[in-house]
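Budget justification note: compute hours in this period were largely spent on complex prediction jobs such as the one shown. Inputs:
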Amino acid sequence: MADRVAICSAGQTKYSPDRCDVREGDLAYEAIRQVLDETGLTLSDVDSAVTTSQDFWDGRTISSMNIQAVVGAHLSHEDKVAEDGLNAVFAATAQILSGHVDVVLVVSHMKESQAEKALIENAAMEATYLRELGLDFLSTAALQAKRYMYKYGITAEQCAKVAVQNRANAKNNPLAQAPMDITVEDVLSSKILSTPIRALDAKPVSDGACAMILTSGKRAKKITKKPVYVMGISNCYEAHSPGERELADCNALTIAANKAYKMAGIKNPLKDIDVVELSEEYSYQQLMWLEGLGFCGKGEGGAFMDSGRTKMGGKIPVNPSGGMLSGKPNQVSGLAAAAECVLQIRGQAGDRQVKGAKVGLAHGMTGMCGQHQCVMILGK
Amino acid sequence: MSQVTIKLEDKEIYVYEGQIYIPNKYAAGTIGSKVLINIRDKKKLLGMRCPECNKVYFPARQTCVECFGLLDEYVEVSDKGTVMTYTMCNESTIAQPVDTPIYAVIQLDGADTGFVHMLGGVEPEKISIGMRVKALFREKEDRRGSVLDIRYFKPL
Ligand SMILES: [Zn+2]
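Corresponding output:
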């Protein structure tokens, strides 16, 4: 990258199944307050706000109006990213590298509890051939899971292990919505949603917000003693229809990751990265994403899980926060993944601290079957 | 608007149910119209071949995602194909055309892309990847120029 871009502060709300006590702006405020307090900045110090929300989920067109008052966007600069929050970090990074903007506030909010998930996802489908079938992201994910498990011999037990491990990790995260002591048997006996996906393979409905302050590397030194740098970031998306791509592979993720790795000078992800925070709505996706990111080969995600390397204390701990399966909203998840990496790299992750974490990988996705993928490398 | 009041600890929280009602029109385009009209009138499935990559898309489409070529070579693909993946929904949503649909990606003979549709007329436990299936069209008077003019795919 032309210059360094730093994250000066990251804040998150506690994730909750239903924050009916707050409006969207009030929810975002809880996260924004944290980053302003930590940096000592005020909204008038913020040159630009990049927000991320989706109109259908907010039940309002131009959904960023819901949080206008709390991001300082009144008579000021604001852009909205309608994809996962990690893409807002990408936009903020580009703004800072332009040299015209020095301090950017990134905010992502979501109240999944207020919306009809299956209908919104159905409305995301191509209108002529897919929407009338009534498809949503659950049924299409199930098509992907089945194809993936068939092609590579991935077992339901291996997917269930992901569900168990993430809920266990969440026990050390005070912001997690749904830490759980569950077993593989619990997952395999939970209700079927759409074969082969069961209730405990899926994320719960979640409300929450995440905020971040990014600045130029130079400015960061005046704001914080612990800047965390954006070392590399990229995104990639692939064909929309589940019929127009090999569902068992996530080639878009590999392309996004390789671009981010190149920017960050990562040659061997398994060796060069210390901690990973992924966004997965369903357990099988974690195995696929690990393959796509190059931590193991295609079809090896199940065996990689079995090897224990993704556990806390393992070679490459995945989702110390508990991830989306422990309750994190869509849209917020990728930004929250970056926020967790910030805590880990600063050594502020409490009971879930990955010892000596210097380089983190944050991942966010948007759309059905991981159609749009964003990858960021963070470091000291 | 209907409303509910939720008691949250010591607070009363007012939550009301709203709905945004926005009708919309969706043009199927020249090519999409031809595909849908051929299904409706002739039970024919029209794909499109890219002369550069030789790839056959079904349903027919205007541009090739591989080479960005503008396409105009219609080819008829078979109403028979192979199940590439499937899922049985356990709960219904109001968007779904039938209760607890069985969705599948089907590679039709003569097409290089998968077609997403439903399976029917089969015991769920007898479905497998690789299974051969054939389109079951609705009766002529019930066909209205929609992907749902195919009721489902059934085992051959
Ligand atoms: Zn072509």
